[in-house]
Amino acid sequence: MSDREMLKCDVVAISDTGMVAPGVGTFTYGLRGIACMEAKIHGPAIDLHSGIFGGAIANPVTAIARLTATLHDAEGRVMIDGFYDGVRPIADWERKAWAELGDGDAEMLELTGSPALFGEPGYTERERRWARPTAEVNGIGGGYQGEGSKTVIGREAFVKLSFRLVPDQHPDLVLKRAAEHLRAHLPKGVRLEITPGHTGMPYLMDPHSALGTAAQRALKQVFGEKTALIREGGSIPIVQAFKDVLNADTLLLGLALPDCQAHAPNENFPIENFVAGVRLNQALLAELA
Known about the structure:
Blueprint: H1 3-6, E1 12-14, E2 25-31, E3 33-42, E4 48-49, H2 50-53, H3 60-69, H4 92-99, H5 104-112, H6 125-131, E5 134-142, E6 152-153, E7 156-165, H7 171-184, E8 191-200, E9 203-204, H8 210-223, E10 227-232, H9 238-246, E11 250-253, H10 271-288
Parallel strand pairs: 1-11, 2-10
Antiparallel strand pairs: 2-9, 2-11, 3-7, 3-8, 4-6, 5-7
């Protein structure tokens, strides 16, 4: 028996997403995909004294900063040629539903502690996070990192990038175009090395399908009549694999709160949501049956 036959199912249910607020049943019907890469710039063969050699050779740390800055314009648009090709527009009903969830701008500022919002013009913060693609710098470094000063020109520098993708972008094509962009904008006097990382396809299902409405009924049984229909900015690559291999949609019924601090110190999950999750699974099985 093949793996596909052994894993054959009608639907997949996962609770690895979030709630828009405590006590509000939340059905996530879409996730962004992901494509990662590391770019490393090589300069001199060894670290050099910046007084003896500075001004005569290219500095890899300066070069990586300049190269990284070419990825966006001043307003946050991604400047990679063809990056937005194929991006599916946000449906009118989605814009309306997300706008009715409350003041997302104020919530985002409170959650993040940022002094101001920033991002692609023409979209709300929820639309940017849930339905628009991004290019993010996850890490950058090079040269001396210790306490105080050390007057060196580092021999190399790096930047780690991730691209969050939406329907109908493909990770492999995005990585190809990103690599072409970096090579085309490479400053003089250095050498570029690109290492691709992990990828995952974006996912989107119809929340108004028979399976989607069954999930909404289960959420209402546990959390009450108010149910939020959202997409999320994070990625769970296996979800689209379930669709591709098993032809099964995934019901993403979130239980994490907005302040759960995912991927950060003191990540948390409330006990009451664990208990609610047990009731939610019971209700979902009954509705699907």
